[in-house]
Amino acid sequence: MAKRARLIYNPTSGREEMRKRLPEILQRLEKGGFETSTHATIGEGDALMAASQAAEREFDLIIAAGGDGTLYEVVNGIAEKPNRPPIGILPLGTTNDFARALNIPRDWEDACNLIVRNYTRPIDVGKVNQKYFINIAGGGSMTELTYEVPSKLKTMIGHLAYYVKGLEMLPRLRPIEMSLKCDELEIHEEVMLFLVANSNSVGGFEKLAMDASLNDGLFDVIVLKKCNLAEFIKIASMALRGEHTNDPNVLYFQTKKLEITSHDYVQLNLDGELGGTLPAVFTNLQSHINIIVDESGLSTYKHQRK
Predict the structure, then answer these.
(1) Looking at the predicted structure, is the pLDDT value of residue 104 above 80?
(2) Could you tell me the pLDDT band of residue 203, with boundaries at 50, 70 and 90?
(3) Which residues, 6+ apart, have CB-to-CB distance to 75 below 8 Å?
(4) Distances (CA, A) of 260 to 24, 47, 137, 284
(5) Whose CA, among 42, 60, 168, 258, lies 20 to 30 Å from 30?
(6) Which helix (DSSP H) or strand (DSSP E) does residue 88 occupy?
(7) More confident residue, 205 or 139
(8) Quick check: do 3-118 and 132-286 share a fold?
(9) Span 3-118: which CATH code?
(10) Which branch of life, at top level (predicted)?
(11) DSSP three-state, residue 133
């Protein structure tokens, strides 16, 4: 018997490849045993509603086609449901950090074949106040960058848009006084930026959270303490090689629950989207959602702690 899939796609994502490929994608899914209906998103929050309805209607699979933003909404649409269908990913957006962490191919045909094989693994989901993320949460003056890049610019020039904006913002970087509290430690510091990572692929930095595993029930937390511009540039270059945790200005630890407060106004970035402000409690929901992955192995499962 054919399984029912709901394909939720962003028609403007990436270079609009999804819109062009839709008939071929549907044909491939149909041949693979998935009776697939579609929902084209029309604005912010639409993918969230569509995913929520798909879970309530008990679809066998939800396919998120687009970038990290579409996937973020799909996760938020099903995270609180008692019935959470597995998620398949077609990474056709400008940024596909999470798909990269899962080794999901960028090529739409290969990604479709992966979905048809329907091999799922459970992954952890982060809960922050009443929102959810699966890849990365962050805060501090540096993280404002991702939602200051206009979507048109992102579509046209991709990752370059972030770097251009990042250079513009460097003079504005300032430390913010924050308190971080968890079972492992309690600190009160002036912080440039904090990242709460679930995977090891963050903004194109493959080695930012070296020990991250998607199903160990733990967040990998990176805190960049107060530093000057020269120190910041040095740490950024060290991060490309995975050596940043040796720097005295960088704090790196693992925890399943973390509370962060500040007297300052600090916006939160969840999977590249604006996710409210501090104060916040970050909770790791272990193995909360199933994702379709490649059976041959997954980089983020491979170095999981014994």
Answers:
(1) yes
(2) low
(3) 51, 87, 125, 132, 133, 134, 271, 289
(4) 46, 29, 12, 15
(5) 42
(6) strand 87-91
(7) 139
(8) no
(9) 3.40.50.10330
(10) Bacteria
(11) strand
pLDDT at position 70: 93
pLDDT at site 147: 47
In sign, the C-alpha dihedral spanning 211, 133, 6, 26 is: negative
Single pTM value for the model: 0.86
pLDDT, average across residues 226-247: 79
Q: Which of 176, 79, 56, 84 has the alpha carbon at shortest distance from 128?
A: 79
Q: What is the pLDDT of residues 251-267, one digit of tens each?
A: 999 999 999 999 999 98
CB half-sphere exposure, 80, CA atoms < 13 A: 13
What's the rounded Cα separation, in Å, for the pair 218 and 118? 26
* Pairwise CA distance, residues 74 & 34, whole Å: 19
- Element counts in the chain: helices (H) and strands (E): 10, 15
Which band of pLDDT confidence, cut at 50, 70 and 90, is reported for residue 304?
A: very low
Cβ(226)–Cβ(241) below 8 Å: no
Question: Got the DSSP string for 242-283?
Answer: T-GGGSTTEEEEEESEEEEE-SS--EEEETTEEEEESSEEEE
CATH of domain 132-286: 2.60.200.40
pLDDT in the model for residue 1: 78
3-state secondary structure of 72: helix
List, by residue number, the catalytic residues: 273
Closest Cα to residue 241, out of 196, 197, 208, 195? 208
Q: Domain extents for the chain?
A: 3-118, 132-286
Rounded Cα distance, 236 and 222, in Å: 13
